[in-house]
């Protein structure tokens, strides 16, 4: 039996980009399915070269022109962060044949170094897209399904996911390998992933001398997930310099392991908090770092709210990213403590979202959204209270309680 392929919502975006640009750069975390997707869509017509192999990498760096001569377009260069020196020479070849589209398809799992080089070399010549782990829609075989506030795009209503099954899924996470192989040991996979990620990616990126201390930082971040983040406190707890902690956070963000959510600022005559919140991209990574092995413990323990918020945020970020859109998601919190978990910027206005760990939605859960809508006026769209149960319920004043499975 061949490998299981899970249809991705990025497919039409990727095809279009390859038909419009000379190069396409596909970024995203390790194991999110970048190579699988490119080979599925383009493998029959394109050459394929992995730059992760030391001898191939050496050949690319030692004599880039000869290397590109040996691997003419159309070609997929995988793991470009190992040989970013190729980029100026790829630019040279593109400029010699500017009319030809989709010549080079490039992947990379680190945004930081790669994007610096890309903006120097391929500005205007390359489409840059991100492939993240699987969205809930992709797991359920409905990759084109819209978000609830996009009524005009909605094709078919999904079914809510049963409560117990939902928390098992959160614990397992959304990396394609774990979804395609349900019998694989998820805890072992995540432990290996975190270790491999540390050894490969973190060593390549800057200012991570002590891997053990960096692992402590990861666990500390997991424990503070979904809370206002005070990096000075984190640095003090770990006994490292504040600049080190800032650099480590930028490494995690650049390698798509975390999402930094910043507060939404607007002049409404109220003092708003300025600190960001940090979420992990994958609920499975978060549960692994928090030491959670049991779905019931995850649901009812102190991390339940953070896991639920992580699931909601990552779903929104994945859906938008896989359309080629850069997600604009913030949170709202006034100095008096009035809060909305997420504020999604859309072309039509701001969608306020509260996330609750209780499966029984009540009107009082929407208090923050009501306050936000009052303060923001016409800019605020109808809001949602997302919960892990199966009840869809109007809460009045344009606010709907919605099961996570209908998000």
Strand order of the biggest β-sheet: 7-6-8-9-10-11-13-12
Total beta strand runs: 13
Structural class: alpha/beta
User: Can you tell me the number of structural domains?
Assistant: 2
Strand content: 15-25%
* Main sheet characteristics: 8 strands, mixed
| Strand and helix order | HEHEHHEHEHEHHHHHHHEEHHHEEEHEEE
Catalogue the unreliable spans: none
Average pLDDT confidence is 90
Give the CA-CA distance, first to last residue: 34 Å
SS summary, helix count: 17
* Proportion of residues in helical segments: 40-55%
- The global form is globular
Rg, rounded, reads 22 Å
Topology:
Elements (H helix, E strand, L loop, with lengths): L10 H10 L2 E5 L6 H9 L4 E4 L3 H9 L1 H7 L4 E4 L8 H10 L7 E5 L2 H11 L4 E5 L5 H4 L23 H10 L3 H5 L5 H19 L6 H13 L7 H8 L3 H13 L3 E6 L13 E4 L2 H7 L5 H6 L3 H18 L7 E5 L5 E8 L2 E7 L11 H10 L6 E5 L5 E4 L2 E5 L4
Parallel strand pairs: 1-4, 1-5, 2-3, 3-4, 6-8, 10-11, 11-13
Antiparallel strand pairs: 6-7, 8-9, 9-10, 12-13
Helix pairs in contact: 3-4, 5-6, 8-14, 12-13
